[in-house]
Amino acid sequence: PLYRQSEMYGRQGVELSRSLLSGWVDACCRLLSPLEEALQDYVLTDGKLHADDTPVPVLLPGNKKTKTGRLWTYVRDDRNAGSTLAPAVWFAYSPDRKGIHL
């Protein structure tokens, strides 16, 4: 979580507020969005798809309790079938098992 990173930097004498770190994360997400969308399209358009979801603890803002979210993994890899297309993995998060990705 960003509050932990902010505290860790602070102990080293580098003051980085959570809002500053959050802004950096947001800017990176916007810059990488086209790449993520292209990767998603590439992985999900394959005829054969391997998928799995893994439960992950999610810390809710302002709450010390965690909620269980899901990290979904989708893999495209047909090398065993003779394909020369590059294998790829796309990860997605959903707050529950419904699989609606955020």
TrEMBL record:
This is Transposase IS66 central domain-containing protein. The lineage of its organism: Bacteria, Pseudomonadati, Pseudomonadota, Gammaproteobacteria, Enterobacterales. It comes from Shigella dysenteriae. Residues 1-101 form the Transposase IS66 central domain. It comes from the Bacteria.
